[in-house]
Design a protein that fits this description.
Strand order of the largest sheet: 1-2
Number of helices: 6
Largest sheet: 2 strands, antiparallel
Distance between the termini: 32 Å
Shape: elongated
Strand content: 5-15%
Order of helices and strands: HHHEEHHH
């Protein structure tokens, strides 16, 4: 990195500090550019948390429950971790990239999450049926949104 870039960055940061300016947080940028998709991914996180809370309340061990998906055995804890990671990290990253394949990528990853969830729902404990059905319905309704123009 050239010293000129560092000096410019320093003075830009100093100028912003003196003026009391801050950079927009990444989540604020997402919420303004993709308000519907951002709300959808946040609701996904809430629904995953609801499933985990219900399991805890019912004394269900998510780590001990296993599901066979495509000839692979995995814990349902892993399924929830994947859905949480995709909604919390992967989708946010993809939305920040803002290219023409962003929505396609989100839908593709989401289809995999739906597949994992469907495999679990086939043998899930009755105490989790309502929460799992809510997440499944939510995942099947990905909003198709173009970015909102800034300004």
């Amino acid at each position: 990195m050239r010293i000129g870039k560092i000096i410019r960055a320093f003075f830009t940061a100093l100028r912003m500090t003196v003026r009391g300016e801050t950079l927009a947080a990444p989540d604020q940028t997402l919420a303004s550019a993709y308000p519907t998709l951002d709300a959808w991914r946040r609701e996904t996180l809430r629904l995953v948390l609801e499933i985990e809370s219900t399991a805890k309340r019912e004394a269900l061990d998510l780590h001990a429950m296993r599901v066979n998906v495509d000839k692979r055995s995995m814990t349902v804890e892993t399924i929830l971790a994947a859905v949480r990671y995709h909604a919390g990290q992967e989708y946010a990253f993809m939305l920040r990239q803002n290219n023409r394949h962003t929505l396609l990528g989100i839908v593709a990853i989401n289809v995999n999450d739906q597949h994992l969830l469907a495999a679990w729902m086939a043998n899930a404990p009755p105490a989790l049926h309502a929460a799992l059905a809510a997440l499944a319905a939510h995942l099947s309704a990905v909003p198709h949104e173009q970015p909102v123009a800034a300004g």
